[in-house]
């Protein structure tokens, strides 16, 4: 039987401990999330989902708040490239303007995962909702409502965010679905809420004032929906005008309860953040990742609201 001296055995022990120590000391992956803002619940929930997924995986996640400034998003990506983060996640404001910064990150060997807004660029993964298809579904629902409750004809107003690529997709899809199910319904006015709650409220008030016989208002995003609900309360239009929109909030829940809001498209926002982090970590591990990862939506009405109510107390 072979016998090893104490010195050699000690060397083996030290070497083994060294390997174990090296494995334990492997640095955590550093991910950066470039956000639109931290005011809208929609974006804060994406961030929460990403933070929870990063923590569960032992990764570090830093978050940049662009405060609705597309130039700030570009600057942040360039800074993260210099900082040599392992991966970048981005909810883009300007999907075309951000492409050069995304390309620069990929060229630097940093994978990019786009959340929600579709980049169609060098990003390796796209996580989010098919906004046009979901809006078409909402448009069909609205058309069915008009056919059932209003005899097939209605005047419809829109509170949008005309500088937002995503919300313009939601407007296009809504028009398609509405035309299919209620071809006699007419969109008589579109106002720009700029994806800012106070601005959306003022725009919605102007829309309601200019169209006293308006029967339907479609709000293309969370700030637009909250602003429209506030405008409806301020003008007492809840009896004659029904609101259809995107993303639950305490205000939207109250509207569903009192009947001024008919339906809300609810996205799995935390699921988006989680999926984005998991995709980034899979890319870093050299795994095959599906480029397009669609997260389903739910149409929330008074009938199924209780399943979501706890999040908005």
From TrEMBL:
Residues 37-287 form the Periplasmic binding protein domain. Keywords: Signal. It is found in: Cell envelope. Its main location: other. It holds the Pfam family Peripla_BP_4. Residues 1-25 form the signal peptide. The keyword Signal applies. GO terms for cellular component: cell envelope. It comes from the Bacteria. GO terms for biological process: transmembrane transport. GO terms for molecular function: carbohydrate binding. Belongs to the bacterial solute-binding protein 2 family. This is Ribose transport system substrate-binding protein. It comes from Pseudomonas oryzihabitans. The lineage of its organism: Bacteria, Pseudomonadati, Pseudomonadota, Gammaproteobacteria, Pseudomonadales.
């Amino acid at each position: 039987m072979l016998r090893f001296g104490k010195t050699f055995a000690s060397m083996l022990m030290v070497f083994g401990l060294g390997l174990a120590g090296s494995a334990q000391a492997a640095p955590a992956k550093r991910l950066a999330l470039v956000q639109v803002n931290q005011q809208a619940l929609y974006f804060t929930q994406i961030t929460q989902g990403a933070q929870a997924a990063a923590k569960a995986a032992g990764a570090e996640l830093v978050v940049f708040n662009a405060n609705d400034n597309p130039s700030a998003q570009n600057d942040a990506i360039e800074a993260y490239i210099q900082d040599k983060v392992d991966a970048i996640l981005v909810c883009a404001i300007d999907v075309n303007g951000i492409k050069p910064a995304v390309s620069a990150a990929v060229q630097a060997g940093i994978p990019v995962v786009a959340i929600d807004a579709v980049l169609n660029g060098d990003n390796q993964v796209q996580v989010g909702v098919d906004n046009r298809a979901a809006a078409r579904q909402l448009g069909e629902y609205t058309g069915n409502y008009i056919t059932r409750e209003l005899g097939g004809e209605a005047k419809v107003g829109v509170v949008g965010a005309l500088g937002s690529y995503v919300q313009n997709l939601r407007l296009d899809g809504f028009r398609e679905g509405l035309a299919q199910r209620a071809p006699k319904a007419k969109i008589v006015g579109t106002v720009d809420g700029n994806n800012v709650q106070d601005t959306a409220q003022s725009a919605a008030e102007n829309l309601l004032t200019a169209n006293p016989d308006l029967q339907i208002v479609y709000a293309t995003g969370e700030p637009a929906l909250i602003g429209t609900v506030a405008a409806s309360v301020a003008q007492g239009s809840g009896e004659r005008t029904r609101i259809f929109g995107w993303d639950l909030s305490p205000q939207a829940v109250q509207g569903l309860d009192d009947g001024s809001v008919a339906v809300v498209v609810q996205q799995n926002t935390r699921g988006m953040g989680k999926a984005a982090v998991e995709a980034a970590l899979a890319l870093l591990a050299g795994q095959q990742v599906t480029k397009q990862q669609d997260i389903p939506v739910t149409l929330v009405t008074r009938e199924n609201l209780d399943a979501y109510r706890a999040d908005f107390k």
